[in-house]
Amino acid sequence: MKSFGRLLIAAVSVAAAGCGASRPPPAEHLATAIAAVHGAQVAGAQQVPKAALQLKLAEEQVAQARKMMDEGENERADYMTLRAFNDAQLAVALVREEEARARAEEAAKQVSGPGTEAQP
Amino acid sequence: MSQFRQCAAMGLILLAAGCASSPPQHLKDARSAYQQAAEGPAKDLAPAQLHAAQVSLTLAEKTFEDEGNSANARDRAYVAMRKAELAQVQANIARDTQLVQQAEQRNQQMAQQQQHDLQQQLQQTREQLNAETQRRQEAEAAQQKALEQLGNVKDEARGTVITIPGSVSFASGKATLMPSARNRIQQVAEALKQGDASSKIIVEGHTDATGSTQKNLQLSQHRADAVRQSLIAQGVPADRVEAVGFGESKPVADNASPSGRATNRRVEIVVQPGSGNQQGNGNQQNNGRRPGNENQPAPGGAG
After folding, report:
1. Could you say which residues from 86 to 125 on chain B have a Cβ atom under 8 Å away from some Cβ of chain A?
2. Are A100 and B89 a contacting pair at CB < 8 A?
3. Nearest chain B Cα distance for residue A108, angstroms
4. Do A93 and B89 count as a contact with CB atoms less than 8 A apart?
5. Which tens digit of pLDDT belongs to each residue from B56-67?
6. Which residues of chain A does B106 touch, with a Cβ-Cβ cutoff of 8 Å?
7. Is B161 in contact with B269 (CB distance < 8 Å)?
């Protein structure tokens, strides 16, 4: 009797894993993605064209992930949060890249400054 | 045999490739993005992120192998592509940050060099100033010392006046220079010889009011003469020096007190700025007893 019960539980578990319906909604991953999107917005991704594109993609994917979760497609939703997170992360990096590039240009100008200043 | 194996392997690969669905665009993009990042500066400047991109790409490839062109495989490929892009962007950030740091370092070095140069200049100027100050102080000290040895020296309207107190020059009532006075006279003579050669030197004898006016006048004249002779003996041209006795007529202190009388007993050597026309007539024998008696025959030495 006991062994039969175990067998039943195992069978049910395998079945559940197979169909994927029992996968819980990726609430934590969604929250992480939303936080990353927020971080990109705060970093000023809207003001840097390349970053603004990544931010837009991330926002769209967050919305899509939400829709998938509503529809019970939790696995797909999880992948979508992963995409959103990586786009948001790239958006922040693109902002930083732009800032670093501007600083490097400014520094190059300062170093060559005395020479170029003398010219009219 | 080995040729057959190679052939078989090739065949299997072709078969596998043919069987599998062609890789999704995302996977192709991910591969090329990773390749681009791996060939760029990310290897050195963003190695951790490049590794993460590699792991992500491997996962995407495996998912594609396992599931074919599934939605999950496409998502994994998409993520791998973004991670490769991120590696490249982070490498760019690292490179630009390095450039800024190098520029800052150069600026700092330049500023340090400038400051070093400036400090060196400052130090040099300071040393020059110190040397100059020391030279001046030494010259002033030497002059001061020489003046102190000469006795009292004053610049007055009639010229530079060197006062030799009577107490150190002559015994009471005598017109003979004491040995101690000879040193002073010698120093004065040296100073006069070094000074303006055209300057006129007047030796003035003064006494206090003790005793008869006539006697004092004579004594003062004799003392002035003695100093004049001494100066001439030390090499001062005779025609530059006159000797005048004023007796008690020009006191500089109150004759009522002993200290005042001591102050009044004195010989003053007045150096008048030269007019320049008295130079070069050293042949003229002139004892110069009084101004204006150059035409009188000189008796040849004072009494």
Report:
1. 86, 89-90, 92-93, 96-97, 99-100, 103-104, 106-107
2. no
3. 7
4. yes
5. 999 999 999 999
6. 111
7. yes
B83 touches chain A (CB under 8 A): yes
User: What is the rounded (10 degree) CA torsion for B78, B84, B87, B93?
Assistant: -80
B244 neighbors B278 (Cβ within 8 angstroms): no
| B71/A111 Cβ within 8 A | no
Residues B89, A83: C-beta atoms closer than 8 Å: no
Nearest CB neighbour to A100, from listed B71, B82, B96: B96
- DSSP letter for each residue of B44-56: HH-HHHHHHHHHH
- The verdict on a CB contact (< 8 Å) between B92 and A100 is yes
Longest dimension (CA), chain B: 156
Indicate the pLDDT class of residue B262, thresholds 50, 70 and 90: confident
Q: Which helix (H) or strand (E) holds B74?
A: helix B71-150
> Closest Cα of chain A to B196: distance in Å?
57
pLDDT in tens, A27-78: 999 999 999 999 999 999 999 999 999 999 999 999 999 999 999 999 999 9
**In whole angstroms, what is the distance from residue B161 CA to residue B159 CA?**
6
The predicted model scores a pTM of 0.52
Determine how many CB atoms are found less than 10 A away from the CB of residue B215. Answer: 14
Strand arrangement, sheet containing B266-272: B152-156, B159-165, B266-272, B200-206, B241-245
Q: Residue B180's closest CA among B165, B167, B168, B162?
A: B168
φ, ψ of residue B168 to 5 degrees: the values are -95, -5
User: In a mutagenesis test of the B interface, which of A80, A82, A86, A98 is the best target, namely the one with the most B β-carbons within 10 Å?
Assistant: A86
Do the chains contact at B72 and A79, CB–CB below 8 Å?
yes
| d(C-alpha A119, C-alpha A117), whole Å | 5
Q: Which residues contact B168 (CB under 8 A, 6 or more apart)?
A: B178, B180, B181, B184
Q: Report pLDDT for B289.
A: 45
